[in-house]
Amino acid sequence: MKQLLKTSAATLLLTTTAVVSFAQSLKGVNGIRDTSYTNYSAYKHSLKGNPEISLVPEFDDKNIQTTKDITYCTIGKRKLALDAFVPKDTKTNRIAFIMIHGGGWRSGNRTQHYPLAQALAAKGYVCFTPEYRLSTEALFPAAVYDLKAAIRWVKTNAAKYKVDTSKIVIAGFSAGGELAAFLGTTGNMPLFEGAGCNDGINSSVNAIVDMDGTLSFTHPETGEGDDSKSTSAGTYWFGYSKKENTGLWNAASPLSYVGTRTPPTLFLNSSVDRMHAGRNDFIKVLNDNGIYSEVHTFDNAPHSFPIFNPWFTPMVNYIDGFLQKVFTNK
User: Are 324 and 120 in contact (CB under 8 A)?
Assistant: First the structure.
């Protein structure tokens, strides 16, 4: 039985050694879209402890060209789509910002961060919001394959959308933040590239923005993997509980790959500590390798802070400031 194992060098190997005696569970792959996490449901949940919050609405800007439902990859009959938010009258190539939605690798959708894409496009960034296969449709690493294909698609279509391919940013919230960190630390790693969509293009990125996404599924700080009351999001995504296959959970952790090739990273965090498990260890590796990072924590903010006022505008400003600093003179 093929398993994914972590080595001391923080790389993965395929092996035929059976390290667990449990069969991978496919019970969560039911083909039924999970709509439990939406902006509105997050708002209702967060309102209890934060009565001052409000959802950030989408807005129209005549200076932004919006194109929706662009197919970036086709897998069998399944078409994966993304949306593009491009500043009009762009004469020079710009920083590309690819934003991955959250929802526990099982729920959520790419419309979740339209306001953020619009706000950043208004500041001159070319923004993309890709969908990816969730755990109701396919298990890990399918989502990674999809999003690597999205990165390659952006690079392939750079001329059309006025993208500077040396300034690609991968960003995400919650599960999307974990995915962004994973993509950023495994650029061009053959095991996680997938095949059939925009092949032959380098999938590495030049900056990571992680909004409350875990850096490790096995770190002592993590809260992911508790199946005592119900099946956890991670167990659904991997098809194994953490106890059944700790090696796979470790191998799926961005912390397992951070190193000399990891790009500068911005961490934007809520007051929920478990949502950024492994962050300090991740930053230590960055520091040891002279790689720039920033951390901004919003005190008393709920986990879903990126979609709420009063944190939205400061968040946008932190992203803008970080990227301008990282890409100065590049």
Answer: no
Cβ-Cβ contacts under 8 Å for 144 (sequence gap 6 or more): 179, 182, 183, 186, 192, 194
- H or E element: which one contains 246? helix 246-251
Domains in the chain: ranges and CATH:
3-326 (3.40.50.1820)
Q: Tokens 């083909």 appear where?
A: 31
209, 173, 176, 179: which is closest to 192 by C-alpha?
A: 179
Q: Cβ(205)–Cβ(163) under 8 Å?
A: no
- Give, in order, the Cα–Cα distances in Å from 197 to each of 1, 21, 153: 27, 34, 8
Positive or negative, the Cα torsion across 17, 140, 211, 189? positive
Which of 171, 162, 273 shows the shortest CA–CA distance to 222?
273
Of 214, 222, 208, 231, the closest CA to residue 151 belongs to 208
Structure tokens at 57: 């609405």
| H helix runs in the chain, sequence order | 39-47, 114-122, 142-156, 158-161, 175-185, 233-238, 246-251, 279-288, 312-326
Query: Tens digit of pLDDT per residue, the chain (330 long)?
Result: 334 433 333 344 333 233 455 789 999 999 999 999 999 999 999 999 999 999 999 998 999 999 999 999 999 999 999 999 999 987 899 999 999 999 999 999 999 999 999 999 999 999 999 999 999 999 999 999 999 999 999 999 999 999 999 999 999 999 999 999 999 999 999 999 999 999 999 999 999 999 999 999 999 999 899 999 999 999 999 999 999 999 999 999 999 999 999 999 999 999 999 899 999 999 999 999 999 999 999 999 999 999 999 999 999 999 999 999 999 854
User: Cα separation of 324 and 276, whole Å?
Assistant: 24
- Reading the block at residue 169, the tokens are 């940013």
How far is the C-alpha of 178 from the C-alpha of 253, rounded, in Å?
8
